[in-house]
């Protein structure tokens, strides 16, 4: 089969690999129809994720058709059209029983924090991902679900990460009716977080980025007020001015470890590897939220130390909520919102790229070329 493979930082290509086999009775093998490239894949592509091995296939977002099932699989049959959450999880450990699917204890012996994630390095379990013609899906009775007939492929693939993660970002903000919510980052996750904030009762939504084409999308798609942080000396001061000098009730970090806006943070993280990522957006979030407010962190950070302004967070009495999204927990609510017309996930999709051209797709998405917001990888066209 054809599969995207990692060759080293900024170098990927499509190679022939063996079609994955059933390795456990509760595995399925899924023939991929659509995958997507996520901002998280960029951390791997840029060589920032520890233990990303040459030959690894990325792809945490994918949907497809069940090709083969193991002997104990009861909920899926060959031919079912399924969406697969990016988390691999057992469904029965201490953490899964509490809905913490992204922190499953049984799927990633390499780490104590994070569970298993498709296509996300050996730090996250070493499972090959869905930017390939076929993918092995462990715990097939637990993670995947059949895609409702009314949901098309592009909308369904957005449900495997970007949309639930944005929605989760808003949920972690514990938004109360009328709250002012600031979202740092106007990528797919930030756009969905901004849109979701309204669904949770926000009275005002502000989105900050430095890419005007994404801010325009935030205004149009998420009806947000927008700020380009490069237009101001200090974006935190602007956020204070915009909120009567109190600060926002809720701030969502939808940027993560590769934040721009502070050269020292960039050099000490991406270049010198002295910290697990640049916490610029997180520090702006801590500074922009009001005392007693909530900071939600869905932007991803590496396992090492980061220079986060924790003293300020402590002294302001902040609540900080963070995690990888437990995707499946969000699906019932999101499917209902989509069916009722409150959300149209594929509205943010800007590009369709055939698997053969995925290297160009990574380059475009990474360099933010051609007004790219969300690229879908077409693996098996109908
Ligand atoms: N928690 C989870 O489960 C989960 C799931 C998916 C993605 N993520 C993470 O969410 C983050 C966003 O993902 P995405 O797909 O939207 O990525 P993306 O790269 O498309 O978007 C990030 C955006 O942040 C902007 N940005 C950079 N520095 C900024 C700053 N200082 N302030 C404001 N904006 C800034 C960029 O211009 C870009 O538009 C990534 O870190 C990704 O790894 C987390
Ligand atoms: Zn578990």
TrEMBL record:
Cofactor(s) required, per the database record: Zn(2+)
Judging by the UniProt lineage, the source's domain of life is Bacteria
Tell me the keywords, alphabetical order. Metal-binding, Zinc
Q: Which residue intervals define the domain Alcohol dehydrogenase-like C-terminal in the entry?
A: 188-261
Task: Give every Alcohol dehydrogenase-like N-terminal domain span.
Answer: 25-145
| Keyword Chloroplast annotated | no
Q: Which GO terms describe its molecular function?
A: metal ion binding
Q: Which PANTHER family match?
A: DEHYDROGENASE, ZINC-CONTAINING, PUTATIVE (AFU_ORTHOLOGUE AFUA_2G02810)-RELATED, ZINC-TYPE ALCOHOL DEHYDROGENASE-LIKE
The protein's name: Theronine dehydrogenase-like Zn-dependent dehydrogenase
